[in-house]
Amino acid sequence: xxxxxxxxxxxxxxxxxxxxxxxxxxxxxxxxxxxxxxxxxxxxxxxxxxxxxxxxxxxxxxxxxxxxxxxxxxxxxxxxxx
Length: 82
Prior knowledge:
Elements: H1 3-8, H2 11-20, H3 25-44, H4 50-78
């Protein structure tokens, strides 16, 4: 979600989105490490292809989640809902 989408949400929707979007760093770190292991294994076995790109995309999504949460927290603070 970008800032424009967050600004259009009602207060209740924003609080619900914040509740559902809390990052869990330990679980995210585990999955990122697991996905990096898959990429390293596929490169070591010369299996570079579509199945190698899927873990790279998922790693990107895991790294993007805290940035979305920060934008959500800014909007909550702006509306004094924190």
